[in-house]
Amino acid sequence: MKTFLRLLGLLLLLALAGGGWLAYEAHTFLNTAPQSEGQEVLFDVTPGAHFAQVATALEQKGVITDARKFRLLARYKEWDSRLQAGRFALNSGWTPEKVLDMLVNGQPVLFRITVPEGLTWWQTGKLLEEAGLVRFDDFRKVIMDPDFLRHYGIPFATAEGFLMPDTYLLKKGDEPDMAQTRSVTGRLVDNFWRKAAPVWPNGTKPPVDQLKTWMILASVVEKETAIEAERPRVAGVYKNRLARDMILQADPTVIYGLGPNFDGNLRRAHLDDPNNLYNTYQRPGLPPGPICSFGMAALKAAIKPEQHDFLYFVAVTDGGEHVFSTNLADHNKAVRQYLQNRRKGQNR
Question: DSSP character for 86?
Answer without folding.
Answer: E
